[in-house]
């Protein structure tokens, strides 16, 4: 009996029996019964393996308008509807409107240049990878979910459905800027958003929910490099929003940027027209960059303000919130007024006697009010100050008003805060003494040693 294999690759699998690589024909007639059984087993394994697709199948849209479920519109008359299939909708096949008329879960979607993907109400298109490129569009009341890597280079996402990116996402809209009209965008993975030549516009109550880490970076400054929240649109950050790059990035348009997670300014300037922070874990962190508000004050209504950098607008801390200058330790600069409401907390970290590098410093360019606020002090790196050591931790250019209601230091330490030449100074007045327990223990060890010497 003669068996013909299609390729050397399949034949290679029979090496569990013996090496036959490079030969296309097997002759079983002269083999022993034992070898026949092994060869039959290998043959079954080869046939079973060859029945499975080695790679995801690409189904290409033939062009024009139509429903996703119409097999005649796809190459090979196969509707992409499995995780092993990728849907490709290209410009070369003709611009069209593709209506997703059911729910599907597929391996990937690549849609480009002028085509429109419309997802019907109640339907969800779940894709592994996603590539929106050129002037392609998405609309409809249904939902699009990308679980893997995705690229967003499209012009417009519209409709009152949602588009969710659960994996790594790259946003790069260098020519058009991009727009979201009435749609909800969810970014839950690591998102990199690079520069653009025109504003990125959100309108008609569009919503962007960021629960992952979104890094906004640009190569050069541009007056158009901004996010416009218009028509009641909002950006809600519960993850981490990072401003990187030396340029200025502005969130304007009158819509609200809400932060219940972390907003971090690593470089350049981050400008808000309307910023709201709430929640005990929320943070506005300066990591070398600058933050400012177009008008009014930055109100910290939950969490805190920390880091090293500059806030070039007034800051107001609500009760229960905190300011923590530096990055263990460092200097935080506020260009305008600073107000600490009753029970707001100043967190001061001390690792030595040098201001700004060994202990935290806050410089206020306007007026400062600390009436009934609290000072919480911690020592770092095993540092322990001596009595009379003084730390100038808050410098005020304008008028300094009020005094801290309480000063909390590590156990055994005590200190007082005074206002000297418009600067608040912490002076150490007491340091820990050896504990009574420690003394008793030392005496006890001495008695034991004496008894042992007497016994010897």
Low-confidence stretches: 1-31, 42-54, 436-456
Please give the domain count: 2
Shape: elongated
What portion of the residues fall into strands of 2 or more residues? Answer: 35-45%
Number of helices, where a helix is a run of at least 4 consecutive DSSP H or I residues: 3
Q: How many angstroms does the end-to-end distance come to?
A: 97 Å
The whole-angstrom Rg is 33 Å
Question: How many strand segments?
Answer: 45
Judged by helices, strands and strand pairing, the structural class is mainly beta
Let me know the largest β-sheet.
38 strands, mixed
Overall pLDDT: 84
- Share of residues in helices: under 10%
Provide a quick synopsis of the model.
This protein is mainly beta and about 450 residues long.
Care to describe what's here?
- By secondary structure, the protein is mainly beta.
- Helices cover 9% and strands 44% of the residues.
- The strands form 3 sheets. The chain has a 38-stranded mixed sheet that branches. A 5-stranded parallel sheet has the order 31-33-36-39-42, with no helix packed on it.
- Strand 44 and strand 45 form a beta hairpin.
Q: Characteristics of this structure?
A:
disordered C terminus, 3 helices, five-stranded parallel β-sheet, 456 residues, mainly beta, 2 domains
């Amino acid at each position: 009996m003669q068996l013909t294999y299609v390729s050397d690759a399949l034949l290679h699998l029979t090496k569990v029996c013996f090496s036959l690589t490079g030969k296309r024909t097997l002759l079983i007639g002269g083999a022993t019964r034992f070898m026949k059984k092994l060869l039959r087993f290998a043959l079954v394994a080869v046939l079973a393996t060859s029945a499975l697709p080695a790679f995801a199948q690409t189904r290409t849209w033939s062009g024009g308008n139509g429903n996703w479920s119409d097999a005649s519109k796809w190459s090979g008359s196969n509707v992409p509807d499995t995780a092993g299939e990728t849907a490709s909708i290209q410009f070369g096949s003709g611009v069209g409107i593709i209506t997703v008329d059911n729910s599907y879960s597929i391996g990937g979607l690549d849609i480009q240049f002028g085509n429109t993907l419309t997802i019907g109400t109640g339907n969800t298109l779940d894709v592994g990878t996603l590539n929106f490129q050129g002037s392609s569009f998405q609309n409809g009341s249904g939902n699009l979910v990308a679980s893997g890597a995705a690229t967003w280079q499209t012009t417009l996402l519209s409709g009152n459905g949602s588009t969710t990116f659960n994996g790594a996402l790259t946003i790069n809209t260098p020519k058009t800027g991009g727009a979201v009209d009435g749609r909800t965008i969810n970014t839950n993975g690591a998102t990199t958003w690079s520069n653009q030549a025109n504003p990125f516009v959100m309108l008609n109550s569009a919503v962007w929910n960021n629960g992952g880490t979104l890094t906004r970076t640009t190569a050069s400054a541009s007056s158009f490099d901004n996010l416009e929240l218009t028509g009641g649109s909002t950006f809600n950050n519960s993850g981490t929003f990072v401003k990187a790059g030396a340029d200025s990035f502005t969130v304007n348009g009158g819509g609200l940027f809400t932060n219940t997670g972390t907003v971090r300014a690593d470089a350049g300037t981050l400008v808000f027209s309307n910023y709201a922070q709430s929640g005990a874990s929320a943070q506005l962190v300066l990591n070398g960059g600058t933050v400012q508000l177009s008008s009014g004050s930055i109100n910290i209504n939950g969490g805190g303000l920390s880091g090293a950098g500059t806030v070039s607008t007034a800051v107001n801390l609500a009760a229960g919130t905190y300011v923590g200058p530096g990055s263990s330790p460092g200097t935080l600069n506020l260009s305008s007024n600073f107000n600490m409401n009753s029970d707001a907390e100043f967190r001061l970290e001390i690792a030595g006697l040098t201001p700004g590098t060994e202990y935290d410093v806050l410089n206020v360019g306007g007026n400062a009010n600390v009436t009934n606020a609290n000072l919480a002090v911690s020592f770092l790196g095993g540092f322990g100050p001596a009595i009379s050591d003084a730390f100038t931790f808050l410098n005020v250019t304008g008028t300094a008003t009020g005094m801290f209601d309480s000063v909390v230091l590590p156990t055994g330490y005590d200190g007082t805060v005074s206002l000297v030449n418009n600067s608040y100074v912490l002076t150490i007045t007491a340091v820990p003494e050896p504990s009574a327990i420690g003394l008793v223990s030392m005496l006890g060890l001495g008695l034991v040693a004496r008894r042992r010497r007497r016994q010897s």
